[in-house]
Design a protein that fits this description.
alpha+beta
Length: 200
């Protein structure tokens, strides 16, 4: 199935740190090492229970939460902590997770594309991007009525969980896409491009 614009996903649904602590964990296999965990604080088992990518049936809400929490929704000066504080406050994201990872708005389609041939299977339904992204790792906390931010920027491969979602159950044929629903981490090691690609 061909690539599609991530903004169309939203339309379809409407229609039918300077990082203080890096948590380096050996949870990803198949040759990838030094994985930096900047995962969502949801239960990973919710999104990694399928043995392979692009199986099962997730809901669109999981995708929208993922997209809104990890893809910047508008452009701003990403080099300044005060502009990050403004963004997090406007999006009600300040202090939501201990460490949050974001990519540029312009990289949104490529992030969705990890599950459409732009990623290589890592383990279970986790896929690592074939290309690197500029990833902003943000730590934020509410302090004395202010959103206090610490920031680090990395150039790294992104790891996401890819599952299927039904975008239209109208007969005669359901419209199903494989989409990212969970941000699992980043890694500097380039995956083997000879490995199985993540796609339906």
């Amino acid at each position: 199935m061909g690539m599609f614009n991530s903004e169309s996903l939203i339309n379809l649904k409407m229609r039918s740190v300077f990082l203080l602590v890096f948590l380096v964990t050996p949870v990803f296999s198949e040759g990838l090492t030094n994985v930096t965990s900047v995962a969502d604080t949801d239960t990973p088992e919710m999104f990694s229970s399928w043995p392979y990518p692009c199986q099962g049936a997730s809901n669109l809400n999981a995708f929208h939460v993922f997209y809104n929490q990890h893809v910047l929704q508008y452009n701003f000066d990403t080099s300044q902590t005060h502009t990050w504080a403004d963004y997090l406050k406007k999006r009600s994201l300040c202090g939501v997770n201990p460490h949050q990872a974001f990519v540029h708005k312009n990289d949104g389609n490529a992030i969705v594309g990890i599950c459409h041939g732009g990623g290589v299977r890592n383990s279970r339904n986790l896929c690592v991007s074939a290309r690197k992204f500029r990833v902003f790792i943000v730590q934020s906390v509410w302090r004395n009525g202010r959103c206090v931010v610490q920031l680090q920027t990395e150039i790294a491969h992104v790891i996401v969980a890819c599952t299927n979602a039904v975008f239209s159950a109208q007969p005669p044929i359901p419209v199903i896409h494989c989409i990212p629903v969970h941000f699992a981490g980043i890694v500097n090691t380039t995956p083997s491009l000879h490995g199985p690609r993540c796609k339906r």
